Amino acid sequence: MVVDETKLHEFIGKVVNEWGAAEGALITFIGDRLGLFKAMIGTDGVTSDELAKKTGTHPRIIKEWLAAQAAGGYVIYDHIKDTYTLPEEHAMALTDENSPAYIAGFYQSLVSLFKDEEKIIETFKTGKGLGWGDHHHYLYEGTERFFKPNYVANLTRNWIPALDSIEHKLKNGGAKVADVGCGHGASTILMAKAYPNSQFIGFDSHKPSIERAREQAEKENLQNLTFEVARSTDYPGDDYDLVAFFDCFHDMGDPSGAARHVLQTLRKKKGIWMLVEPFANDKLEDNLNPLGRVFYSVSSIVCVPASLSENGPALGAQAGEKRISEIIKSAGFSKFRRATQTPFNLVFEAKP
C-alpha cells in the first residue's frame, strides 16, 4: 500500500482540530453550568483570578479553562494585560437565552449523550433502539434550551404566517390547536401567549416532560393552555384547526400511524397540519456538509434509535421532503407543500 503523506498529514491535522472541538464542547458546557461566561459580560477583560473570585471557582483551573477558550476563539486573550474578554457577539450566543442565536443548550444535550455511552453502544450492537425517555435528563433540558430560541425567532413571526389562512383564526376566531410531541412545551407556550383567543393542548408520551411543561405554563399563568400525556397515534380530539409537530416526526415509531391520526383529528377534515423538521436535501450526497454532519450524527445516536425502540421505520433527522411527503400523502392527505424554511429547518403544510 502506497500512502500519500500529504493526505495523511492533512487528515491528522483535521483530527487534532476535532479533538480540541470535542474537549472544548465539554468545557464550554462547564462554563455554562458555572456561570463563567455570564461573569465575563460587561468587563473590559478579566484575569483568571478575578473570574475565579466572581464565580467561586479555583483560580488555577480557571486559568487553564480560559486558555483553552482563547485557543478555541471563544474568548480573546490580551497578552500585555494578561486578561480575557468575551466579545458581545459571543456573549449573545452563549449567555442570552432570549437571543435567536442562543446555543448553550446544545452543549448540555451533547454532554447527555456521553453520559448515555453504554446504552448507545448497546443499541448500535443490537438494533433494539433507545427510547427518548431512556436518555439522561440533560437531553430533554438541553433540547428545550437549544430549540426554544429558534421557535421564538420564527414560530409566530414566519412559520405560522406562511401557512394557508390559519393565522387570522388564531388571532381572532379562536382556533383549537394540538402541539404533538411538545416536550417541555416551549412551542406550545409561545403560541398560547401569542394567540390568547385560541386554545392549545400540548401532548407528549414522556410524562416527565409533560410535568415540566405544566410547571412552565403555571409560571406564565396561561388560561388557554393545557398539557396531557398522549402518543402521536392516539391523542384525543377530532376538531383541531391546527395540529403541529415540531422536530419530532422523524423520531416516531409509527409516523404513518401518526399521519393517519392527524387526518382524523382535524376539524371536519379541513384543518392544517404543520410539521417542522430538520433541514435536509433528499439525496445523501447533497447533505455531506457541516450541518448534515451534525444532523446525521445526532440522528445515529438519538433519532434512529428512538424510532427503532418502537419497531419503527427509523426515518432519521435527514429524511428529506420527498420521503416525508410520501408518508403523509399515503395517509390520505391530498395537499403537501414546503411552506417556508430556515437554514436549520423545513416547515411543511399538509391539508386533507
From TrEMBL:
<protein>
    <submittedName>
        <fullName>tRNA (Guanine-N(7)-)-methyltransferase</fullName>
    </submittedName>
</protein>
<dbReference type="InterPro" id="IPR036390">
    <property type="entry name" value="WH_DNA-bd_sf"/>
</dbReference>
<keyword id="KW-0808">Transferase</keyword>
<dbReference type="Pfam" id="PF21320">
    <property type="entry name" value="WHD_Rv2258c"/>
</dbReference>
<feature type="domain" description="S-adenosylmethionine-dependent methyltransferase Rv2258c-like winged HTH">
    <location>
        <begin position="25"/>
        <end position="95"/>
    </location>
</feature>
<dbReference type="GO" id="GO:0032259">
    <property type="term" value="P:methylation"/>
</dbReference>
<dbReference type="GO" id="GO:0008168">
    <property type="term" value="F:methyltransferase activity"/>
</dbReference>
<dbReference type="InterPro" id="IPR053173">
    <property type="entry name" value="SAM-binding_MTase"/>
</dbReference>
<feature type="domain" description="Methyltransferase">
    <location>
        <begin position="173"/>
        <end position="279"/>
    </location>
</feature>
<keyword id="KW-0489">Methyltransferase</keyword>
<dbReference type="Pfam" id="PF13847">
    <property type="entry name" value="Methyltransf_31"/>
</dbReference>
<dbReference type="InterPro" id="IPR036388">
    <property type="entry name" value="WH-like_DNA-bd_sf"/>
</dbReference>
<dbReference type="InterPro" id="IPR029063">
    <property type="entry name" value="SAM-dependent_MTases_sf"/>
</dbReference>
<dbReference type="InterPro" id="IPR048711">
    <property type="entry name" value="WHD_Rv2258c"/>
</dbReference>
<dbReference type="InterPro" id="IPR025714">
    <property type="entry name" value="Methyltranfer_dom"/>
</dbReference>
